[in-house]
Amino acid sequence: MSLPSRSVFFMEREVRLGSQAFDVEKERVYGNKQIRDDLVSYLDEYRLQVSKHGFEFQYSGYKVKDIYSGEPMSVKTKRTLAERRAKGLPIHRELAEDAGIESLDEQLAYAKEGDRIFWMSPPGPKEDGYGNYGFVFEGRVVGERLFMTANRIEKPTIAQCNKAFFELTRDNVGYINPEGFLANPRVVRNSMVDADFILQRNFSFAVDQKEALINKQVIAEMDSMIDEFVGVVKTGTREEKITAFHALENYALELKKRLMHKAEARENDNIIFMSEYRDHRYLADILNVYGYMPPIVAGSCGPTGEETKSNDLFADNFKDLMKAIFGDLKEMFGIDEESYSFDKSGTCVRCKNEGMLGPCNLCQGCDSYLRLQAA
Predict the structure, then answer these.
(1) Structural domains counted in the chain
(2) Region 338-360: what's the mean pLDDT?
(3) What is the pLDDT at residue 69?
(4) How far apart are the first and last CA of the chain?
(5) Dihedral in degrees, nearest 10, Cα atoms 229, 230, 232, 235
(6) Considering 207, 239, 274, which residue would you say is the last residue of a domain?
(7) Which of 108, 240, 363, 373 has the greatest number of beta carbons closer than 10 A?
(8) Does 240 fall in a domain?
(9) What pLDDT, in 10s, does the model give residues 272-300?
(10) Is the Cβ–Cβ distance between 187 and 104 less than 8 Å?
(11) Among residues 207, 240, 261, which one ends one of the domains?
(12) pLDDT (tens digit per residue) in 4-52
């Protein structure tokens, strides 16, 4: 689930744009607000790395539903399973997520106003491209809405997750792998627990108020650019979409760095020569300077358009966003990321990140990027 009121967190763990056809009908109904929310969610998780973000679901007809389309989340999880089965991909994590949604549907049938929801998503395997962070989701039932918060936890262990889950729910589960948590959310009546306190006690979790304010300021200062980007997604060429997307990623990183520097300088009574910085307002202002491929971060090869893996249970709309930007790479260029394997561990010769490498000692993200450049 990733940021203010967004659909970005549906139910697919993996986005492989090179092997999934671009759904023209889906793009046609991919509305402006949804594109905007999905982009902000992506920037928050992968670029700004926020510790908390909020989102909503509908709950009606005994089903948890997407806030935008009204489609049941259980339909999304089963569609993901069918796609992955058809491609011969692992489905153990997706099976657990599907079971979790079914369980949540059933528990909410008996829920009352104010009941709380707790659900954990420990990290997926590093060798499969996931980052070393997970999420603890907490929510509250308000009428036919579920108001949710995703709390990012760094490097959690299964033992830590079991202990925190007990303190949040009073349910001593003793799960032995991430799938146990994914398959078993809890709806809790009359809960008065302080979730932040429990997370801080059990994990590397802290909300830096200064950084949280800066992250919000970054998005606020990019507001007009984000609105322009929505138009580019709707009407731009593939190259224009990719350049604009990369520019927004890089500028978000740069703007956060600038704002952190300014805040630290103010705290230390240092003089900041504002002429050193040029703040931009429009998307066109940043395309030439910032439209290059951004750094690849753990758990995300999204900048290449090839694959975006999130430990967030509800990151399915990263798939929609990436498809809308990058399109179908296999159809356009004959690229098929499954033609050879990324099955050896090491350091990528291009980005210098640790991970699984292909035959040229490139990670999958850099491999895809270089093939796109060659095309």
Answers:
(1) 2
(2) 72
(3) 86
(4) 35
(5) 180
(6) 207
(7) 363
(8) no
(9) 544 444 567 899 999 999 998 888 765 43
(10) yes
(11) 207
(12) 333 333 233 233 222 232 232 343 356 888 889 889 988 988 899 888 8
